[in-house]
Sequence to fold (666 residues):
Amino acid sequence: MAAEAIAGAFAPGDAAANAAGLRRDAARERLALFGLCSPAIVVVLIVLVIPAGWLFYVSFIGAGGAFSLENYARMIEQKSYARIFRTTFEVSLATTAICILIGYPFAYFLSQLPRRAANLCLITVLLPFWTSLLVRTYAWLVLLQKQGLVNSWAIELGLWDEPLKFVHNLSGTLIGMVHIMLPFLVLPALSSMKAIERDYMRAAASMGAGPVRAFWTVFFPLSLPGLFAGALMVFVLCLGFYVTPAVLGGGKVILVSMRIASNIELFVNWGAASALGVVLMVLTLATLWLAARFIRLERLTGAH
Amino acid sequence: MRDASAAALPIRIQGVTKAYGRVRALDAMDLDIRSGEFMTLLGPSGSGKTTLLMVLAGFTRPDAGSLRFGEAEMIRTPPHLRGVGMVFQNYALFPHMSVAGNVGYPLRIRRVPQAEIARRVDWALETVQLGGYGARRIDQLSGGQRQRVALARAIVFEPRILLMDEPLSALDKKLRERMQIELRQLHDKLGMTTVYVTHDQREALTMSDRIAVINHGRLMQLGDPVAIYDRPANRFVADFIGESAFLAVAVEDGEVRHEGRPLRLDAPPPRGGRLLLVLRPERLQLVASDPAPDMNHFAATVEGIVYQGDSFLLTARLGDGTEIALRDVVRRDTIAALPKPGERIVLGLNVRDTVLVPDGEG
Fold:
């Protein structure tokens, strides 16, 4: 009876009205979603798009105040710029490599521990992560300098006689950068390792693979996406790293970020600084693009 | 392909004990598994059946005991040197390898030549009826197909012992029932010793040569499906396998009595303690009031009748208040004549089905 009443009340004209109403509802939902995103969109616009656009614009303004390519031309003419870019990539690569060598085994160790112990150990990674960057950098300076803790203890223990030079050179830069960057590698690597089912390794063992072969044929390939994500993060962050290499490198290791700073602080040349910034950004984006292609290739070959 | 003696190994488990804190997952377990037999470890969750399987595979280190495959002591042998095939509950197929990559894995580990690997992978995939699926990715397969790949991977290196940990639990009912038959046929064809873990009593009854019923880390009963079902050794087995009601009986002057009336038995009653009569719904029948010589009779009052399509389930209460059930097939001519709730009826139990078990876990 009720069904008949409903069927009778649903005239063909209502079908069009309902369809229009349903479309309006869908549109309203999309608008609401956009509304929720809008603060983020505004922030990104103000702090990212506008400054980057301005940077881009300024890089094409010469010393005379008119449009000019001189900021880019200088980078090609002066050999020192090429050297700085090379150093930046080399230091970033070295930092990433050392982070992988230290961070991957550490993440593996954490992934095999029982949950409580793993969380406890993870704090040793996270605690420095939550401390100020500047504090950690100066702490390394205190530890590693000539009369620092490391040198004085080592000499007292007779490990070496003369204080070794750890800071204001490449080794200091790398020690500091690796320490700061390590969590960015460990966390994604760990999360991808934790997602690897324990039964995979058991299955490998049941099929005759010893622990080492099981690791290289099963665990390692499955942990690669996380390792890769972490390594990429570290590398990209290193490309623009300023504070730690500036303090621990002591002017001996000059990265692009430092040249940008000196262009502004010493020479007040915003055009030159901006052009450097633009080139660094383009190179960073190129790295990300290459990485994305590499990952897609990996998927195609069935590695993921 | 191979003769049966080369294809299989017997397993001898002696005094295997594993404690987690104060809980004994395995309590001095003894079990002999014959060469080439399909043995099912059956028990509720937490009974220790999976722990026992993990000890066989080498993934769980027991506290004590001996484990022999054939003549060789295996208790301290690491899993990758035990040479047993294993099918995991969630398959554990490697997601970064194709179907052929997964199935060929144990052969690559054994450094079998490429051409031979290809040939044997094809054979294994054919055997599980997945011929031509070698190039597929794992995430392109359905649950049933994954199950078959896991199986192909476990048999491709022709292990003499195959372990399976609830391999069908993730499949839907129809597929599960088909795979039960297929797994059994595969076992008969390849002839390896198979140890199969399940909590599903019907699965165990369908597939096994023998069933080891396990609870609290101890062996409750070992026997073939008919013995396990028809002659349960104790209350736990009778209760866990099939539906059962239990009726307290008394032993007086060498006779077993229920409410003063002696019960006819075809075997002497088990010794000692209190005894229970096992009443299974499908073994009881409605009888006319004249007593038949090969039956025990119980007067009861009908409580209700449920129609279940292929059968009906009648619940009734005995004189002493015990609720029992009777299940029978539905026939056109009998359905109208079924008793109504409140009616007094007589239930008959054939002497062959009159089974007594000791109370408690024995």
Q: What stands out?
A: The interface with chain B takes residues 197, 199-200, 202-211, 213-214, 217-218, 221-222, 302-304 of chain A (CB under 8 Å).
